[in-house]
């Protein structure tokens, strides 16, 4: 694996089977990298984006300039404190509630549960990030709709820009109210705070790479309320000024992440799409959605295939016991795949070169 | 019916003292107890806590399934549970007839598993604790019920000390301290 040239942009999706997570690393020219989310190998516990960057020879301490945490689900945040710790030159960006004090109280409330193994791993990860930022006296950048997070100059009026497309003001105001309810319901020491709601606060990203456009959908979903989710981006975004040719499909290709209008208005007919599957409680993407994405895209890639219906491999005695007692236990398998896409930033006619690595695959119609 | 006790509890339980001649079946039980005791000592010397449970599968399997052990004792019932596999679970979803939980294998913390359980797996005492977000311990093992060895599963929901006002104050103070130190842009 090699480093891209200075004027070559790279958008690489690193993903796993099961619910172990996904991350995107992007080269925006002139050795400037950004990391969006992180996930860990459940076996080695390493942060996968960090491992990838180091493997291709990126000097992470100097060359990573921005870390974005799209939301605090375990499959998007685990290992992000390692990324922050090693990327000394990077700004750190999250979507936080307006009421930051209450937001921190909820985090502390959940963190208090660490000792009794109830707390969310994501809270521990976030706490570690806050510790590093406090130590460095570094600011936390808040992601909101249409905020310019980073500009990289490529020379002679050419530049790459990173924008957050969400969450909307309405979503963040709603988040303040949710925080109070969560604190009320989950202040019992023995209850783990559910992490079901953060998708609506997910930070979708738009990359303006000179003349090319990329939309990275995170886990953002559609909503009946046009003040949030993809509808709000469609109605209110001022920064989406062109059709994009590369799309990270939101929320593992789920039905509630699908937004027809985004495809019609802001994605090219030759769009390259990529996604990470999910195989925890439900299997995503479902075949009908996969077919839909295959039809809409010029090419569709998945980091791994969805599989796994058996318990972990153990001794025969335990296998027999589980079978005899008719327990439904299945392992959420871990497999890693990388989809690397590169394009010449300076050539407006350039198209994406896609390289599926490890277990990543191009998907044909099911 | 007395509660199930662990194998270690069973071993430290004092023997019933009597002037009557000891029946043969009690001698058999004593021999087995002695053998189990030796095994436990050996395991304690050589293995980590986690491996104790793994080792007990093979170490006790033959002996515990021996027909000798099925002879019931008149004087006392030895009840214990030998773990062969343990998980910590977090309830993720409650359905109409059961619940779904994320399971972490306590002897192999790599990939996790998802388990589906019926409500009748949960004891009546634990039912009020069954909510989304609740933590429980789930074990598979072999139980000795009056000399009969049975394969069993045990589920226990976590009970913790409720937080006091002092605890909350401490948490809020910590958040306040962080709030003062952090800079937002």
What does this structure look like?
- The complex is a heterodimer of chains A (366) and B (185).
- Chain A is α/β, with parallel strands linked by helices and 366 residues long.
- Chain A contains eleven helices and 19 strands.
- Chain A has a single domain (8-185, 200-324, 332-362), classed as Metallo-beta-lactamase, Chain A, CATH 3.60.15.
- Helix content of chain A is 28%, strand content 28%.
- In chain A, helix 4 (80-86) runs parallel beside helix 6 (121-136) and helix 5 (100-111) crosses helix 6.
- In chain B, strand 2 (80-94) and strand 3 form a beta hairpin.
- The longest helix of chain B is centred in the N-terminal third of the chain and has 23 residues, at 24-46.
- In chain B, strands 1, 2, 3, 4, 5 and 6 form a six-stranded mixed sheet that branches.
- Chain B is of the alpha+beta class and 185 residues long.
- Chain B has four helices and seven strands; from the N terminus they run E-H-H-H-E-E-E-E-E-H-E.
- Chain B has helices spanning 7-12, 24-46, 49-64, 165-181; strands at residues 5-6, 80-94, 98-105, 113-118, 135-145, 148-157, 183-184.
- The N and C termini of chain B lie far apart (64 Å).
- Among the domains of chain B are: 7-54; 79-157, OB fold (Dihydrolipoamide Acetyltransferase, E2P), CATH 2.40.50.
- Chains A and B meet through helix 5, helix 6, strand 6, helix 11 and strand 16 of A and strand 2, strand 3, strand 4, helix 4 and strand 7 of B.
